Amino acid sequence: MQFKNIHIGSVINQRVEECKMEMPRICSFFKRREEEIEKMYQAESLDSELLLRWSKLLDYDFFRIYSQHLILYSPQTKGKDTQLMNINLETPHFRKNIYTKELIDFILELLKKHEKTITQVIDEYRIPKSTLYRWIKKY
């Protein structure tokens, strides 16, 4: 899975094929014509409500793909986290990163191919040293 450039329509199409989901069922679920569903497969991005419905239909968290992108490619926020903790926020504040199997595989593949060193992974992706070594030992 390529987390840097996300084409959500093709990811959805791939999941539909994996699940062997029939087009009439999809059309019925979305109350749309087949042409409209095909357009969604071609779309690089989708409305969050549509993405939520696809997630429910295909029993797959498509939002997690975007979460992984944020973990890997968002700029570092050293110092901002401590400032945010002192402010009462209305929006939920997530303190822990979510490491999926795909993300772990991606990081370990970088190390295996010697594209990045352990130190570079720790610095660039802000993965704790102990967590990274645990992944190396486990996987």
TrEMBL record:
<dbReference type="InterPro" id="IPR009057">
    <property type="entry name" value="Homeodomain-like_sf"/>
</dbReference>
<protein>
    <submittedName>
        <fullName>Transposase</fullName>
    </submittedName>
</protein>
